Amino acid sequence: MIGNRFTNYIPPQISEGSFEQLLKIFMQLVTITSGDVSEALNWMNEVDRQYNLTDDDYGMGDFIEDLKERGYIKENEDNNAFMLTAKSEMSIRRQSLEEIFGKLKKSAKGNHRTPFSGHGDELTSDRREYNFGDTLDQIDMTDSIKNAQINHGIDDFKLTEKDLEIEEKDFKALTSTVLMIDISHSMVLYGEDRITPAKKVAMALSELITTKYPKDTLDVIAFGNDAWPIQIKDLPYLEVGPYHTNTVAGLELAEDILRRRKTNNKQIFMITDGKPTCLKLGAKFYKNSFGLDRKIINKTLDQAAKCRRQNIAVTTFMIARDPYLQQFVREFTKINNGRAYYSNLTGLGDFLFEDYIRNRRKRVR
Questions:
Q1: Residue by residue, what is the 3-state secondary structure of 163-227?
Q2: Are residues 164 and 216 in the same domain?
Q3: Beta bridge partners of 113
Q4: Domain count of the chain?
């Protein structure tokens, strides 16, 4: 054996597939800049000057022209500024899905299994006799004909109800999910960008549901001083504002959305890094950013109990490890009978996906 040979590392030149490689970087940057195409391209030019992303054959100007020609960006007619297209918004969601849930395999049907048998698409190894109310698609015709031959013989062949054999299938639960994203100012404080991972998780989950579980529903809520629903296509543009954290308003809006859903399984995923610091009382806001204000906390815990009475589980993804905040989340979770994760930014997607799958396997009666 010759063994290993070591040479000087020569970084690969971006020539073949250069557009696709630059596109991945662009999609990451445009997510961080909340959809600001010009700022993302400025950053790319700066990175190109420092690390030579392009070469003489394919430059940043070529990349920008390709973005326009391939329908990823377009010019605003009012100010001639670049803006994202629907194609880019979909590409960002897909890239987020690959980045966070990259190990998933696509399913042809798009529903999760549960521990219960019933009408569904996934066959099990269980067989049973026909019961009144079973549908034709549940009948295993091959085994049923075989039973008829055994029971009646080939000369007097007939197919009776007792010959029919039913294939058990996994019951498929439908789930309605509301994802709450905290956009208070603390999501970008202390030199840590927490809003970008939260947006990526939301985009990955939305792409997962729409492609793999299309019968499920996902609604997204942004909450700061107040709460409001946002469209999935608007997720890349979500920005942190000079807001406090009105958790009560987010939960109330989530409950109102889920109340109108006709599914049995209903859940709320809440991504936050801070304590509730705000309430809306009539037309005014009651705020206290210095500590766990008992007036605000009690209202928040009341909402946790209300969600529990409505069979809505709240899973809190806490991007903070302060002991006094964790104590509040534990109390909130105990009252709601939900779950809580104290996640870092990189593990957020794994926790959220695992809990989504786990919750879909149960059937609320």
A1: HCEEEEEEEECCEEEEEEEECCHHHHHHHCCCHHHHHHHHHHHHHHHHHHCCCCEEEEEEECCCE
A2: no
A3: 172
A4: 3
- Co-location of 181 and 321 in the same domain: yes
* 159 plus 184 within the same structural domain: no
Residue whose C-alpha is closest to residue 23's, from 86, 80, 73, 81: 73
Domain region containing 328: 175-360
pLDDT value, residue 293 = 93
Cα separation of 132 and 116, whole Å? Answer: 19
342, with CB counted inside 10 A (0-12, 13-18, 19+), is middle
Decide if 105 is inside a domain: no
Query: How far is Cα 65 from Cα 67, in angstroms, rounded to an integer?
Result: 5
Is 278 part of any domain? yes
What's the gap between Cα 61 and its chain centre? 34
Same domain, 331 and 201: yes
The confidence band for 218, taking pLDDT boundaries of 50, 70 and 90, is: very high
235, 206 in Cβ contact below 8 A?
yes
Q: Judging by DSSP bridges, how do beta strands 82-84 and 265-272 pair with one another?
A: unpaired
Q: At what angle do helices 195-212 and 86-100 cross, to 10 degrees?
A: 100
The per-residue pLDDT for range 24-44, each reduced to its tens digit, is 999 999 999 999 999 999 999
How far is the C-alpha of 71 from the C-alpha of 84, rounded, in Å?
Answer: 9
Whether pLDDT at 175 is above 60:
yes
My answer on whether 70 and 133 are in the same domain is no
Residue 304 has φ and ψ, to the nearest 5°, of -60, -45
User: How many whole angstroms separate alpha carbon 22 and alpha carbon 64?
Assistant: 10
Instruction: Indicate the pTM of the whole model.
Output: 0.72
Asked if 94 and 196 count as a contact pair (C-beta separation under 8 A), the reply is no
What's the Cα-to-Cα distance from 315 to each of 24, 144, 191, 210, 220, rounded to whole Å? 31, 46, 26, 21, 14
The CATH number given to whatever domain includes residue 209 is 3.40.50.410
Q: With 90 as the cut, is the pLDDT of residue 334 above it? A: yes
pLDDT tens, position by position, 264-281: 889 999 988 878 999 999
